[in-house]
TrEMBL record, chains A, B:
This is Manganese transport regulator. Homodimer. Residues 1-62 form the HTH dtxR-type domain. PANTHER family: IRON (METAL) DEPENDENT REPRESSOR, DTXR FAMILY, TRANSCRIPTIONAL REGULATOR MNTR. It is found in: Cytoplasm. GO terms for molecular function: DNA binding; DNA-binding transcription factor activity; protein dimerization activity; transition metal ion binding. InterPro entries: DtxR_MntR_Metal-Reg, Fe-transptr_FeoA-like, Fe_dep_repressor, Fe_dep_repressor_sf, FeoA_core_dom, HTH_DTXR, Iron_dep_repressor, WH-like_DNA-bd_sf.
Length: 218, 218
DNA sequence: ATATATTTTTAGGATATCCTAAAAACGTTC
DNA sequence: GAACGTTTTTAGGATATCCTAAAAATATAT
């Protein structure tokens, strides 16, 4: 397993390759490599039985592939917690270094780091940290686009993308914030939230989809 | 700069390539790669002006090469301090993981880690941590083989090699220990030390050479 | 349903790294 | 200083990764 293959598997996973078939095109855009390179890498991962492949359709992770993706996510997110909590990185700075560190982290290192950090359950963006064995803890979050009007909810997780995180900073939307939905425009139109203090924030449908929430249970 | 090239430069440095010409043979043994690969890598580093090369003689680091070697040592040793002090690694366990981490550590990461660790001056084996700019702090240590009889001295630094560290553990020789020399056999023969409590320890010449000491100043 | 556009694959190369085997240079020894 | 042994270099390949350009397959649109 090389850093390259690992990044490829991660990309497939992040595009939904654990449950649906991902086209080469999507991987080309996501990884910024040529279509030919995607075909080639597919062939390699196929040989290792980490993906299944429908010619001219795309690829999907096998169960081994999913397990590897989860273990990478575990490493990545544990590093993010370290960089954020111990080294004082900002919310939107942690991703790049974690992306490098995850590929050179022995299991021993990750487990000791995990202990050192007191076994965190979530990374700085609210992403759940997979278990050591590659399984995923249960979560009950769903996209902000699926929230019903009136019911109060909390921001539980946001997309781990530097530009998106900067946007949220601008809009002053933070992990743990509590809102109610006041307006949803049809045809994937903008969504308006209201803070308990009555401040209104309007964001687009795409941005809302990158925010995971859960209803407040009182 | 790739991890491979970095390791090559480190190997040259560790074999003394900052001050003398290192033969391909030595690099072949040290890096466990073929002679042909050494010739090839030499050509690459030569093109980048990181080494100078005397055909059929060997290579030597240029000043840029030395600076890079020092910066790598800095990264390596700061990681070692982290693994040892924060993650509870043993003295002889830190090397392998530090060797991987050093190649993916941005300057930002190293400086923040350095702050987090309170700017350590030495790694867990007593190795001095080079400065950020690639220069070396002054030290006054010298090999145990050069100690004179009678004068008390302290163990300041030991070779960062797993097997050697295990040997020292067996012999119960630790960083900071204070000894006097009681016997040196000629022809690179064994050297006998005595603790303040009168316990005697005998080690070979080669092992003694891997231990750096300094006289106790009282 | 046929033409056009898009996507995927194949073909053919480039570079970095590794290798083995053969050739060339150097060193050593009588 | 010629012969032998060692070290270095060269020659020729292998693999992983990347690429561009052309061909093949699929999707779309009139």
């Amino acid at each position: 397993m090389t850093p390259n293959k690992e990044n490829f598997i991660k990309a497939i996973y992040e595009l939904g390759g654990d449950h649906s078939v991902i086209s080469n095109k999507k991987l080309v855009n996501n990884l910024s490599i040529s279509a030919a390179s995607v075909t080639e890498m597919n062939a390699r991962l196929l040989k290792e039985k980490l993906i299944s492949h429908v010619p001219y359709r795309g690829v999907k992770l096998t169960s081994s592939g999913i397990r590897i993706a989860h273990q990478l996510k575990r490493k990545h997110r544990i590093w993010e917690v370290f960089l954020f909590e111990k080294l004082g990185y900002d919310w939107n700075e942690v991703h790049a270094d974690a992306d490098l560190l995850e590929h050179v982290s022995s299991d021993l290192l990750i487990e000791r780091l995990n202990d050192f950090l007191d076994e965190p359950k979530f990374d700085p963006h609210g992403g759940v940290i997979p278990n050591k064995d590659g399984s995923l803890p249960e979560t009950s979050t769903f996209p902000l686009t699926d929230v019903g009007t009136g019911k109060p909810f909390k921001i539980k997780e946001v997309d781990d993308d530097k530009e998106f995180l900067n946007y949220l900073l601008e809009k002053d939307i933070q992990l743990g914030d509590r809102y109610t939905l006041t307006d949803v425009e049809p045809f994937d139109g903008p969504i308006t939230l209201e803070t308990p203090e009555g401040r209104q924030i309007t964001i687009g449908h795409k941005a809302a989809f990158k925010i995971l929430v859960d209803y407040v249970t009182e």
